[in-house]
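Explain this fold:

***
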Amino acid sequence: MCLKSRHTQYLYNMEPSLAASLSHFAARFANELEKGKSQVCSPLSAQAVLALTALGSGGDTRKELLEAMALSDDEALRSLFSYVTSTTKSVEGITLKMANKVYVTNKSKLQPDIQKDAKEVFQSALEQLDFTESAAAAGAVNKWVRNSYMYFQSSSPLESPSKASP
């Protein structure tokens, strides 16, 4: 289902191939969800993590991730997410809050630009952890999740409570 409103107008101003990529991924994502259950899932969040992973990978992995997102190359990927994150910040009536962080083993060598892309393109972060110390790694991840949750709880509460009515 596609809902049209004044808030979706920014998608119409996007490069058509990038808008098609976003829509294609969202449709494929929704098709993979378990049918018959109520779920709240964000294709944009999933695509952002996959996109950041693609930028940090190489070879067949990068190629397959770009294909899955229907994007031609790294620059198209950067353009799409730069546009989405910057535009949704300026659309009246829309507040987009995303909390994404990718944890990478401390045994991996990160490409020089990946930290920059994480911050500037995705408003995200990367952190290297020693996953052989599973308790410490789990503690670091859980601490970040708690802090992110508290951020969302403390910022811009609903103006009026949500209520279901008969």
User: Anything to note?
Assistant: The CA atoms of residues 38 and 82 lie 31 Å apart. The mean pLDDT is 78. The helical segments are 9-12, 16-32, 43-56, 59-68, 74-90, 114-120, 134-154. Residues 14-29+41-154 form a domain with the Antithrombin; Chain I, domain 2 fold (CATH 3.30.497.10).
